Amino acid sequence: MAPARVLPYLPLLRGETHLGEWVREGSIVRFDSPGEDLETERALIELGGHSGQPRKRRNPADAGVVRGLFRFAAAAGRATDRVPPHRPMQRVGDILTMFDKPATHARLRAAGVSVPDALPEVHSAAELFAAARERGWTRLFVKLAYGSSASGAVALQWQGERVAAISTVRMLGGRLYNSRQLLRYETWGEVYALLDALAPHRLHAEQWWPKASFGGRTIDLRVVTIGGRAQHTLVRSARGPITNLHLGNERGDAEALRRELGPRWEMVEDAAESALNAFPGALYAGVDVLLTPGFRRAAVLEVNAFGDYHRGVRVAGRDTYQAELCAMMEGDAPRP
To answer: Does residue 1 form part of some domain?
Structure first.
């Protein structure tokens, strides 16, 4: 096998090269996260149609980078139609659907995958609360439709006159900033202001299903599913409802959890594999799986196109990237 050729995003975004110069007949083509590069983020924010100067503490609550990546992936997907015959690891159409949380939710539900119920699209805090109360809900997870890494996420609950929201979003001077310190809002005025500020960027609001506890902490799982098989699993362990590891949360003991569940571990694998099966053009994805208290039920929260970086996690001696290449060689690749 020839060594990998890595094409950075910037030359493509700037029009300095095109895919046809890089893709040879029979090549395996993989799209990946652009990583943490300021110039690339600036170019993607510009492509996403947002103004403002990116900075170390930029304003990603408007999902500028993800929207830019969404548009870039769509353009790159069209470009792959004009390059020599190749073998994609993920079809771009499926990547784009995974970027869109409402579209992913709809696809999973249509495929019979267990997912939390969701509200129809809402455009303000008032609409959100009205739709939730109509259903008798008092707990919601609110996400940006194109958000990533919990950017813009809000865990929201209320009872009577009391309300509480936990979020990655800090509001300063009318602007929204991402924070790696989870913030708590406890007045109706603050919560309405937060949701109204996020709403123009398109919201996806789901019923908040409680997560299981393990080792005295709240958990969920990121399961990298490859070629239709659930493989590399991370347990994300937190003291609150938002479990993303970059927010200071911890890896739990996946083997200990597997032993605790015993034969019930199959429901984790079934949930992850059913989710990937809903995307027949994707060789792999990182599937976020929720276990309810008492490990009674598994459900899928999200499907992540670029969610396969599991440092130090191996299955049968292979990391995620080795396992994906082996699956390609075994003929599991999606058709272009």
So the answer is: no
